[in-house]
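Lecture notes, part 5. Sequence design as translation. It can be helpful to think of inverse folding as translation between two languages: the language of shapes and the language of residues. The source text, in structure tokens, appears below.
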């Protein structure tokens, strides 16, 4: 059984908002906490929502991320 679309969209919107707000927060600890909670909300919506559209969007986003080479310094 999957979550209704409304709850899934609310979780995705809250997760994205927390990730974005955590990046601009001046307090490092609070910003990191907001980002972690945002990522957890996105993971819950993706794994427990069981909507193919979200899964495909996640795969497309992962494929668009730049790859790191072996000799690349952080």
């Amino acid at each position: 059984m999957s979550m209704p679309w409304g709850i899934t969209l609310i979780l995705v919107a809250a997760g994205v908002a927390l990730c974005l707000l955590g990046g601009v927060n001046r307090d490092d600890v609070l910003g990191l906490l907001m980002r972690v909670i945002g990522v957890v909300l996105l993971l819950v919506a993706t794994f427990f929502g069981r909507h193919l559209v979200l899964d495909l969007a996640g795969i497309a986003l992962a494929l668009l991320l730049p790859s790191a080479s072996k000799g690349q310094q952080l």
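The translated text above is only one of many valid answers, since several sequences can fold into similar shapes. The chain has three helices and no strands.
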